[in-house]
Design goal:
The structure is a homotetramer of 280-residue chains. Chain A has 280 residues and is of the alpha+beta class. The first copy, chain A, has helices at residues 42-47, 56-69, 75-86, 182-195, 201-215; strands spanning 2-12, 14-20, 27-39, 91-101, 104-105, 110-112, 118-126, 129-143, 168-178, 219-228, 231-233, 247-250, 255-264. In chain A, a hairpin with a 2-residue loop joins strand 7 (118-126) and strand 8. In chain A, helix 4 runs antiparallel to helix 5 (201-215). Chain A starts with a strand and ends in a 16-residue tail after the last strand. In chain A, 55% of the residues are buried. Chains in contact: A-B, A-C, A-D, B-C, B-D, C-D. Strand 2 (14-20) of chain A pairs antiparallel with strand 12 of chain D, so a sheet runs across the interface.
């Protein structure tokens, strides 16, 4: 016989734009909000009884209504408010994820979406417990030197040559738990990438995480995902040309994927914060 | 002070096409292979010492070489062979994920990629333990009736009307652990979606998972992720027209996201199989 | 001084799903409709006078209403009906493009989106003139042999070796003008790709277009766009392995892009049919 | 019988990254280059004779080699150099398109890809004639007020209400022919969008094009493509809330697509510059 295992449901990717027009100078917030609820949901799965199922349409409405009723401030706060609201009755855990697009002001009421990067937040509420992660996604950085890669093992299938000088390019996704000023954490990531002399992308990743811990004393843990977007030195010798690390082919796939966490000693338990969303 | 937390690295999305041309009738396999290794990797993160770091370039080479040296057969088997190979020394856990594109034969040596759906496999090897998940992704299905949604709670933010007849559309991702004939499992999923009278997408999801357990006795657990791709009945009344569930606006976002597992009683532990890949 | 040049506007990508539920056996159509109107539109561009500007919201409503009021049948016919409707007053030319997703029946009322390929149609109406193009997009095909490439010129920058046997893979977009049974035209394209002995992708493209002209006597012209999706034979010699055209790396970018038209002698003028949509 | 109609072929999307490391301060250029050649190509289409077909692989090599042999400077100049090179013998027309990603300096050798927007260039060379278009793509802008839309015609299918104050959001693609300082042209586009009081997106588009003509006297024509990315005021009245243009649902599809050209009086002929690439 079978039973219901891990499960969650909710409205994903509600795209909310909030304009504050109290004076001449307008403010703009651009959030995509995803909700995942779990709890006593056997009845709907086994019998189709929806008594415990707050409709995902209602969740969407709540996102829009809350944007009018309450301030947004930090996305973490808005997510926490939403998650607390959804908790109750059969719903014993609520996760809310927010992805915020950043706009740059052109004048009092015009803006341009200058950055590719997004600010992200994830909040899980369970009873009185609240877990909060903050972060950044799609932060694309590249350095043209100060990156080496050598000393790796060589087996039958190894053809890669060692290098003392390579291009290092990546697209950072970082999430940290605990309190931090977002701009400070972002700055620590960017400055460390730029200033670190890299012997491997893993080392750079760890240094970036450690820099966030150093700069933001309220942060317990930083998780980073950094694809190694390979830039290959093009062999120009068939054309009678040298290529002293100047002309590169930027490849799409495959790519290295380097992922890791840097944890402060004595960090509290992460609870369900890092549970995958979505599940698959 | 800080320490290294959870981490993994590897080559992602190596796109391998393997042609078997032993006779007039060629066979074609189209796999995208991703590798994630973990183990004693403190030295590279903290000091940039790569002695334990099998280069991701070597991993890519190994995928291509193995495709020549060994049969591919089921993607689970090919993934297991690769994962076992990467294990050893400082590497104590290897995860290999494969996504296979399915081609339909046109003649002895020509093919068309008729299906959007992909066959997927994930294997984790740790010491002598092997965990295997099989599955399907991007399986798009829709039913024009036999789907209801009512009896859900109404709060201040609820505007959705109850319905006894709606369009139900989704894009199934399913993963199961244990032994199964892939086509049998796929058939159970598709037939159940088509034949099930749905009172909610959760109920349909559970029925689909249960059907796989019924049809494939070696399966211990099925995990499903099913977005509810909303089809809204367009209000044609301003134009003096009725719309008896005939004309729909298919929306992109937001969407409901329904996820859940169906577990056989007495299922063995899943080990690290469901750990997220990628981490973020 | 400046003046208004070429221009058009309209609602793009209205996603319409139409269910015919007259009996037990339901029918399903899934169309994405884009409209582009042009005419005497100086006033809106220069002065912001919208008297000639049928709102794109109205265009969207019309698409949905027409799906209820009129049969859809061939997408070309539905597009023509819409284009004729939008013509009049200041609007002197209407273009309607339709992209249709194809669903396969599972039972009386359930369907699966089995094909990646889409059926496409473009119609331009101007006064009493109607130009119609039909076609197919995203038709992915591959052959493992029967493809050569040699005899090309060699200059200082040429390193490619000649080959008598390569994998040929492409994603066909084809448009034809004139009358044709869609399935017949599709069959001519697929059969010719599969059966043709190719000395270059250009030759295959031409043969495919000619086959449509042969099979569909009402067709005046076929335009094809066929990326050459390169499959590179992986060099396994560093691992002591031969690779007799068996193991390939399927690359994403760059790709060759081969485009061409095959025109029947005496074909009528194409009018504005091939004008680009969108303009940029 | 049939004949070859319009045709072109070439290597698309060669992704070139060029590092200038003459001193401590490195420079970085990131170009994606696409080539399309046409000419006397009957033999390859009809007989598979490749004597006139410069391999697309050779074209790719040439892009990389030229990046070493010659300065890149403006993408228009690099494209022109490439196009002139490919011309000759059977090739009577060469088109080269470049899309440049813009990086912002972090330090002497580290960069971040801060902008979504891309600089684009298209060059066509035919005999001694050279046509050049410059432009920008993916420039995302939004204004929270100073946008009206009313006075449009109302027919049976019109439900849209007139508005004196709406959010206006778009993603600008602009191409201009003639000489211009790129930053000046970009500034004219952005400043005009921000400062213009809009009665329709068409009027804003025209004003933006006119501003480029005013700011850049060498420009003959500006072509713009501007999707109207709808931001809908969410109806909060069911929840007892007013929504005075503060809470918006940002929708993905459908969208309005507004396209137009602004041409300087006495502009020379555009030749084949605006011919579509790709053809379909």
């Amino acid at each position: 016989m079978a039973r219901l295992g891990i499960n969650q449901y909710g409205k994903a990717e509600t795209h909310l734009v909030r304009v504050y027009r109290d004076g001449e100078v307008h403010e703009l917030r651009d959030l995509t909000v995803s909700v995942a609820l779990s709890g006593e949901l056997e009845a709907v799965h086994l019998e189709g009884d929806n008594a415990a199922v707050l409709a995902t349409d209602t969740q969407k409405n709540t996102v829009y209504a809350f944007a009018r009723e309450f301030p947004i401030d930090r996305p973490e706060d808005f997510a926490t408010r939403l998650a607390r609201h959804f908790l109750g009755g059969p719903i014993t855990r609520a996760r809310v994820e927010i992805s915020e697009v950043l706009w740059t002001r052109l004048n009092d009421h015009a803006f341009t979406q200058s950055a590719r990067e997004r600010r992200i937040a994830a909040v899980v509420v369970e009873g009185d417990d609240v877990w909060v992660a903050s972060g950044i996604a799609d932060l694309i950085v590249l350095k043209t030197t100060d990156s080496e890669f050598h000393g790796f093992p060589r087996d039958r299938y190894t053809t890669l040559e060692e290098t003392r000088d390579r291009v290092l390019a990546t697209e950072v996704t970082a999430r940290w738990r605990g309190e931090a000023d977002w701009a400070t954490a972002r700055g620590a990531l960017v400055d460390t990438f730029a200033g670190h002399h890299s012997l491997s992308l893993q080392q750079t990743l760890y240094a970036m995480g450690e820099a966030v811990l150093d700069a933001c004393h309220g942060v317990h843990e930083v998780r980073l995902s950094m694809p190694n977007k390979h830039h290959f030195v093009v062999d120009l010798s068939p054309f009678g040309l040298e290529n002293p690390n100047e002309v590169f082919h930027a490849d799409d796939r495959p790519y290295g994927l380097i992922e890791g966490a840097v944890v402060r000693d004595g960090a509290p338990d992460a609870g369900p914060l890092w549970d995958p969303y979505p599940l698959l």
